[in-house]
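About this split. The held-out portion is used to measure sequence recovery: a designer receives only the structure tokens and must propose an amino acid at every position. Recovery is the fraction of positions where the proposal matches the reference. Here is one held-out target exactly as it appears in the evaluation file.
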């Protein structure tokens, strides 16, 4: 027996409970009870998350990335890319800069 979904799992649990109750009332337990319990133990539910992608979101993300690149370029042109540790204007290059 192979359990494939939650409905089969619930049905297998109910069947196992009924078979165990029958065995506890003095009747001989059904030999398939152990197979049923093994199938219940082996069942691993799988979950599928619903897609949360909003239509057009990847296009919007691409637009934002392009705008960020443009802003970075304009900022670097305006500030001279001061975050760079190497001088870009040629002044101070040599043994005194510590570079």
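Reference sequence for scoring:
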């Amino acid at each position: 027996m192979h359990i494939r979904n939650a409905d089969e799992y619930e049905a297998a649990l109910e069947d196992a409970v009924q078979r165990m109750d029958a065995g506890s009332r003095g009747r001989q337990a059904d030999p398939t009870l152990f197979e049923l319990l093994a199938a219940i133990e082996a069942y691993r539910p799988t979950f599928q998350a619903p897609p949360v992608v909003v239509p057009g979101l990847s296009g919007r993300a691409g637009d934002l990335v392009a705008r960020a690149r443009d802003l970075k370029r304009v900022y670097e042109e305006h500030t001279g890319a001061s975050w760079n540790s190497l001088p870009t204007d040629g002044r101070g290059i040599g043994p005194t800069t510590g570079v």
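Annotator remark: The radius of gyration is 34 Å.
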